[in-house]
Amino acid sequence: MLIPLLMCVLHQNDEKLTxxxxxxxxxxxxxxxxxxxxxxxxxLYFEMYWVKDEMPMHFLENDKTKIKGDWIYLxxxxxxxxxxxxGRDGILIAFNKDLLIYEAKEFSLNVFSLFRGQGDxxxxxxxxxxxxSLTAILNIIQEEHTQNGDNLLLLRTLIKAxxxxxMASSKQQLISPDINEKRVYQFLMLLENHYTTxxxxxxxAENLSLSPKRLNQILKRxxxxxxxxxxxxxLLIEAKHLLFxxxxxxxxxxxxxxxxxxxxxxxxxxxxTTLSPEEFREEVKKKIAFE
Length: 291
Fold this sequence. Notes:
The protein is an alpha+beta fold. It has helices spanning 34-37, 105-115, 128-148, 152-169, 181-194, 201-207, 212-223, 227-245, 250-256, 262-273, 277-290, and strands spanning 8-10, 24-28, 45-54, 69-75, 90-96, 122-126. It is globular and about 55 Å long. The two termini are 24 Å apart. It is 48% helix and 13% strand. The chain has a 6-stranded antiparallel sheet, with helices on one face. α8 (227-245) packs across α11 (277-290). The chain has 2 domains: 8-169, Sandwich (Jelly Rolls); 181-290, Arc Repressor Mutant, subunit A (Orthogonal Bundle).
């Protein structure tokens, strides 16, 4: 059962939410304000939408078994997923990516790995035992914020405990620390800032003071994929996102993603999905209507 948590925003005594001064944002779906969903700083946040007693959404992750119950949808920074909370029972837990700055690089990579899905989000089924544990941690977060909201060290530790519990629930294999963890972390940050404008391996290798071959070796060992594969998957995720949530034309979407030729974008999309962008958009509409 989800905790009866009221709006809980950790910030500097401002009555109105200002995300640039906040690190953690927690609210029920019913109380979720447009101040959060429409702010320009929202792209800096990891978001966890804990939905109660529902079938999972499958239009982007078709390989999951349909189980009715509690699900947590994980949205990494820079996605700004338009989650529809209307008429749904649940809670949003969001935290600024800067909370990871003082964590060990391997933990930061584990967080990014936890949030990486094949679509706009990753969804994890939450059984009753895990739900009780996560609820207990959230209750402590609320209590500590109420009594001593300035203790970010403690709050950061509690968020970390929440994430580690999710990792255990998802049976995620944790990344072990070594000298290349920092490089992988830096690459992922670099990718999010430049994937629509920089599509050459050399750009990322040069900015990390590595040869393309060496960077590919590191990424292949740590993430199981090459630079080109990671870049293509990131472009595909954003393409699906824009086709799903927006009304932009295929030509407009292709330009937003850095493709100067819309026909080349269409070929890229079909190669990755076996569907044209137009066909994908129609399939999504049908699946949403079916759900």
